[in-house]
Design goal:
single chain, 137 residues, mainly beta, five-stranded antiparallel beta sheet, 12% helix, flat
């Protein structure tokens, strides 16, 4: 019986090693996520998605050209978060990181310390045409 288990383990290991490997990306719209903001400013369409949690909240931001719909992958994004509670610890601005192999997607992890209403300010600078837009939600 022990020999059969070893053979099954070896066969399973061999199958796993020869199967093709697919790359999985963690950014974009996640199961359970909600779009918390959507707007158009300075010819840029902006969509913000997250799974609202206390702790390290992963936020994804999608930028696209308003006219063509093409993704914008060469932008700088700063995120400012302000909690509604007077006891909340002020945060430094966070820079969003472009997602590799997913044009137009950016991500940032926001350390949410408490439940409540948060005001978010995004500063988006499109590097090709020097558009600068500030949006808040």
């Amino acid at each position: 019986m022990l020999v059969n288990k070893k053979i099954k383990y070896i066969v399973l290991s061999l199958l796993i090693s020869i199967l093709p490997i697919h790359t999985i990306f963690a950014n974009g719209v996640h199961p359970g996520s909600v779009m918390v903001f959507s707007a158009e400013a300075q010819n840029i369409s902006i969509a913000v998605h997250t799974v609202p949690v206390v702790g390290n909240m992963h936020i994804t931001i999608h930028l696209a050209d308003k006219k063509s719909g093409n993704p914008i992958s060469n932008a700088g994004i700063q995120l400012f978060a302000i909690a509604s509670s007077p006891l909340a610890i002020p945060m430094d601005p966070l820079a969003a990181t472009p997602t590799m192999n997913q044009p137009g997607w950016y991500w940032v992890n926001l350390p949410v310390t408490e439940v409540g209403n948060w005001s978010i300010i995004l500063i988006v600078q499109h590097l090709n045409n020097n558009h600068l837009c500030v949006v808040s939600y």
